[in-house]
Amino acid sequence: MRALTDPILKVQNLTMRFGGLVAVNDLTFTAGRGDITALIGPNGAGKTTVFNCITGFYKPTTGRMALRHGSIDIDAHVERLTDTPNDHVTNAEGSLYLLERMPDFHVSARAKVARTFQNIRLFSGMTVLENLMVAQHNPLMVASNWTIGGLLGFAGFRKREKAAIETAKYWLEKTKLIDRADDPAGDLPYGDQRRLEIARAMCTEPVLLCLDEPAAGLNPRESLELNALLRSIRDDHGTSLLLIEHDMSVVMEISDHVVVLDYGTKISDGTPEQVKSDPKVIAAYLGAEDEAEVEQIEAEVGL
Amino acid sequence: MMMEAPAREPVNFVGLLKDAVFAAAIAFGLFSLMLGLKTDQTLNNQMVLVPRPGLLFTVVGLVFVGRFLIGYWQAINAGKIKKRKAAATPLALKIEKYGTAAFVGFLFVYPMMVLGTAGPSGAIKWIDNFGIQILIYIMLGWGLNIVVGLAGLLDLGYVAFYAVGAYSYALLATSEPVKEFMAGAIGPTFWPLWAFWICLPVAGILAAFWGVLLGFPVLRLRGDYLAIVTLAFGEIIRLVLINWVEFSGGYAGISSIPRPSFFGVPFNATESGFAATFGLEFTPIYRTIFLFYVILILALITAVVSTRLRRLPVGRAWEALREDEIACRSLGINTVNTKLTAFAIGAMFGGFAGAFFAARQGFISPESFVFLESAQILAIVVLGGMGSLLGVVIASILLVGGVELLRELDFLKAYFGDNFDPAQYRMLIFGACMVLMMLWKPRGLISVREPSVFLKEKKAVSSDLVKEGHG
Amino acid sequence: MEVFVQQLINGVTLGAVYGLIAIGYTMVFGIIGMVNFAHGDVFMISAFVALICFMAVTALAGMTGGAVFLALLVALIVSMIVTSLFSWTIERVAYRKLRGSFRLAPLISAIGMSILLMNFVQVAQGARNKPIPPIMRDTIRLFEKDGFVVAISYKQILIILVTALLLGIFWYVVQKTPLGRAQRACEQDQKMAALLGINVDRTIAVTFIMGAALAAVAGTMFLTYYGVVVFSDGFVPGVKAFTAAVLGGIGSLPGAVLGGMLIGLIETFWSAYFSIDYKDVAAFSILAIVLIFMPQGLLGKPEVEKV
Amino acid sequence: MSMTEKAPLLAVRGVKTYYGNIIALKGVDIDVHEGEIVTMIGANGAGKSTLMMTIFGKPQAREGTITYDGRDITRMPTHEIAHLGIAQSPEGRRVFPRMSVFENLQMGASVNNLAYFNEDLEKVCAIFPRLKERLQQRAGTLSGGEQQMLAIARALMSRPRLLLLDEPSLGLAPIVVRQIFDVIREVNRKEGMTVFLVEQNAYHALKLATRAYVMVNGLITMSGSGKELLADPQVKAAYLEGGHH
Predict the structure, then answer these.
(1) Which residue of A has its CA nearest to C303?
(2) What are phi and psi of B325, to 5 degrees?
């Protein structure tokens, strides 16, 4: 858990109100670089709202979300940056971004935060490969000289496009979708669509990947595969992960750090083991342990 | 799939009769006042009602018979499971590819073919009314296709850009100060001869500029709101053209717009004219043929550019925008710019077509830029199958060519007497055809999408999966 | 001041007519999310039906005061029935099969239907203006200043009252009755509504009929107010009424009437104080401006973007 | 089995369903007897949700028959089926987003014209206190889990004889999942409601079930009592391992 030693994202006093409804209430937490940070909590606790704030889809009512690239010291710069009208600061050590000041597409394009959605949002009428090409829009746009070079068929663009296809192939192989590359995304089974969404997000080369219930609707075998994929994204690519998940087999298995929300407020924060045994979490979220019940069933069916 | 044909049920004639009686009753209700009684004015301006029971009962009878026959046809086909064509075969793409090539080839020889068969005087109608007219709509359809078909932005005021292009050319070409300036700077014949070629790009750029101008405020709007605001913009431009008489000539429009020259050689009977220069006998057909090739080239440029754009990041972003705007934003795509480029490029092609239209007609007025035109262009795009270039071509031929063919109904006067005015029925039939075609092919004629990039094999995407956009 | 009051009265009357047509647009859009482009032409047909009916009754009963009133009443009722039948048929023939398919298909079908209806009336009834003899010409003088008489006619009072009454009734139906709840459910998720036992086809048909009945009221009042109708009268009032529906917030009945009032007032005041030529430009510009800054319209509920 | 003496409440026989050209159900046979909880498990895309919708005639089965309470409902319009006392909480929740929670519940009770509305409202509010807090809130603003509760509550409002639940535990917190399975058990035991349940969460669902089916690729491949399937090695390998509790 590197949240304290090497943070990548610091969320401070985040509050989001919709009319009279307080969805997130004064939430503060830190996600560590190279960590898998899980955000869990009962339904309606405000987890997805937090995601929408981080990724720029909602403008928070109050609060600050600082994300860094490189080793720039967040605490040393964040106050100064807040006093300026800018949304980021860059020095030799890296860059610091204030996500709440950025429009959604800048959060992805500049701050390099990618996300997936609870209700899968693929470009269903485009092929799997095309989905991954769209994710590389910004570098390709530059390579096509903002369309003009591409229209005239310049070689620079064709080269860059080949490279983009290679990137896409890499992620397709990684997510075991390579055989479906030329099929429309809408034709894929549910589990494949979930993985494609992750592959697409990774094609934007994010430093922080936010996954909204990646295991929802997966069967146990698919969940296991997902665990392996997420671990590999963390270990092989150094991408930090932030995920919302209800499937405890995923959360407890792969998270380095768990933050628990209830009614928009943080009720627990720590390692999976700490959180699992936190009485507040058990009361609000996990429910009473039913180990005894499980054993009883297993005895009945003769395991 | 092997399936036993289910035993055909006997046709239920009583039920069919009931349906037909019901339909006839509805028809009677609908038409007894609207057809059965005609409002007429007597010579001293008195309104009177003229009963037409014969007409009413003929129509009701036709509805009865028609409903019965349709019902019978459905009943005998009910047992058959409709054999649907297999979804998403590469064959459809091949047809599109080779079909397009063959069609372009045909277009290039079309004027010669017509000339050969119909002779110089008969050919004008076929080249102008059918060839040029249809090509203008193909070009407009391809232009609008970028906005509606690719980017999924519903634009009901596309005719505004057509108007901007037409008026840009017409105003510049007939402007006295410009004419005088050019006469002083280069020579008196320069501007009338070259105005079209100089103004054509200007018209496109101005239309694109208007596209951005109108596009910018409506970016946040979605779906039908966007449609209604674009409709409003289209109407505003038309109403301004009508009312701002000093600027645009109002209802009277602009006349004596210079015609395009053959790159400096005019199409007239003078010695420096096209016919004399090339040692031909003067006939107006040369100009028509030349115009045909001009619009053909313009349309092909539109097609080539839009095909290329689709394979570029910007084109893929358009389609992605149509599929899911929120996902686009999450991938770092600036949706504002993406939408604006779609508006601008679509408008630009509309502007080119407008300039050509003004040059071909020699006269323009706001009458040519009514909402019905926008509706017709949109109908072409939708009927063609959104995003399909070949579809737009077929739809243009069906809709525009069909309407032109209906002009040939004068022979009906022989049957119905001289009081019968077939022109009235032209739009009636046109409206009915729009409805029927949508009922027949709601997804358009070509309902597969061609992927812009592929790894191993290009597979067509069935239109069931393609979204239509919300903006 | 006098001019202002007089224009206010005229504007509200015109606005009431737009408002009644707008309700039809807003209800149909509300329930199946389509712009029923043919609704303006349905309105035009209703005026024609009322005209023919009115002429038929007065031809039989004469043009005395009582007979005119009777003729008007019969015209209104018959027009409501026949127009509803038209609207029902249009939905059944041109839209039902396209429901749930491609979003643009019903729109194109509706535009085709609009062209069809307009030209049907032209073919069936001729292209000329169709006047009726002036009726209900009595006015109430409100006040007079410097020779300028501010007056309100009985026609205007009738139009405003009928609009208010119908708005009340329809708003109650949509908000408070099971039918209205079913309509709103169909608007949001037809498949789910069917799972809960709602007859979706019937609910949608009823919606078309309700909208058409209101358009018939508007058409009859339009005929009596202006005293003339022509086959092309569907398009411009139709577009303006749709504008009104969007302006007021689509899906909201009071919004439709409010939007209608605004369009009517803008038009009358613009004509009175600026230039009659640009009155439609003004109406459309206001629409564009309102939508750009308030995309949900004046009374529509803002849509929270669900990510 | 002892229950087979009585005709089943719901009988699905040889049902084949297509989406366009694609076959989704390839001849499915299912029995649901009065008073049972029947579970169907299977992978994503196996056709479970298609079966749920086919029972309601959306889409209609191209072949085969579906009988409910002795009546053939294969070709019956969806809204009429709803009036026979079958309710469904469908895939994707499908709450009416711009209606309040209260109105959504009213919609659920519309088949019996709100006859028992107040009584039932209290009941579902007791089951899902979360909904009680949000009665006047628009359903579209609820979180996913709350919408799931609302969808189930809405289905209960019609007082169905047969309740169809499509993945009621999808996307819910563990504590709520348990709560929902408790609710299912309770309405079954106390009110004798027959429940037909489609689940990914095989462990909980099988534990609850009187009988269960496994669907693979549009076909039923296995059936038996909940306990039997829970103990079956194939089922364990495919649907239970990985610790989906």
Answers:
(1) A18
(2) -70, -40
Residues D165 and D215 both lie in one domain? yes
d(C-alpha B301, C-alpha B138), whole Å: 12
* pLDDT interval class at B91 (50, 70, 90): low
Task: Quote ipTM for the complex.
Answer: 0.85
Most distant CA pair in chain B: distance in Å?
87
D59 prior amide bond cis, ω within 30: yes
Q: Is B332 in CB contact (< 8 Å) with chain A?
A: yes
Residue D1 domain-assigned? Answer: no
Task: Report how far residue B278's alpha carbon sits from residue C186's, in angstroms, rounded to the nearest whole number.
Answer: 69
B453 vs A contacts (CB less than 8 Å): 127, 129-130, 133, 161, 165
H-type alpha helices, chain D? 48-55, 78-82, 101-108, 117-127, 129-133, 144-156, 174-191, 202-208, 226-231, 233-235
Confidence of residue B352 (pLDDT cuts 50, 70, 90): very high
pLDDT level of residue A302 (50, 70, 90 thresholds): very low
C274 close to B (CB below 8 A): no
Q: Which residue of A has its CA nearest to D93?
A: A119
Residue A167: pLDDT band (50, 70, 90) is very high
Chains touching A (at least 3 CB pairs under 8 A) are B, C, D
CA distance A211 to chain D (A): 14
Size of interface A-D (CB pairs under 8 A): 98
Calpha distance C209→C170 (Å, rounded): 12
Q: State how far the Cα of C307 lies from the Cα of A139, in Å rounded to an integer.
A: 25
Number of domains in chain C: 1
Residues whose CB falls within 8 Å of the CB of residue D190, separated by 6 or more in sequence, listed in order = none
Q: What is the pLDDT of residues D46-64, one digit of tens each?
A: 888 899 999 999 889 989 9
Asked whether residue C258 is assigned to any structural domain, the reply reads no
Going by C-alpha positions, the residue among C218, C62, C68 that lies closest to residue C137 is: C68
Closest CA to C23 of C12, C8, C36: C36
DSSP readout, B85-101?
PPSS-HHHHHHHHHHHH
CATH fourth-level superfamily of A1-112+206-273: P-loop containing nucleotide triphosphate hydrolases (3.40.50.300)
Cα gap C117→C45, rounded to integer Å:
8
Chain A positions touching B322 (Cβ under 8 A) are 125
Report DSSP letters for A137-182, one per residue: HHHHHHHTTTTHHHHTT-HHHHHHHHHHHHHHHHHHHHTT-GGGTT
Residue A189 contacts D where some CB pair is shorter than 8 Å? yes
pLDDT means per 10 residues, chain D with 245 residues, are 69 90 88 94 84 92 92 93 93 88 94 90 89 90 84 93 90 81 90 91 87 91 90 82 49
Residue D175 structural domain: 6-85+161-239
Is the pLDDT at B269 greater than 90? The verdict is: no
Tell me the shortest Cα–Cα distance from C298 to chain D, in angstroms. Answer: 17
Interface test with A, best of B330, B455, B461, B466 (most A CBs within 10 A): B330
D152 and D193, same domain (yes or no): no
Residues of A23-50 as b/e, b for ≥16 C-beta within 10 angstroms?
Answer: bbbebebbbbbebbbbbbbbbbbbbbbb
pLDDT at B79: 56
- Residue B8 is classified by DSSP as P
CATH number at residue D39: 3.40.50.300
pLDDT tens for B278-315 read 878 787 888 889 999 999 999 999 999 999 999 999 99
pTM: 0.87
Instruction: Verify whether the Cβ–Cβ distance B81 to D22 is below 8 Å.
Output: no
Q: Where are the domains of chain A?
A: 1-112+206-273, 124-204
Residue A294 has pLDDT above 70, yes or no: no
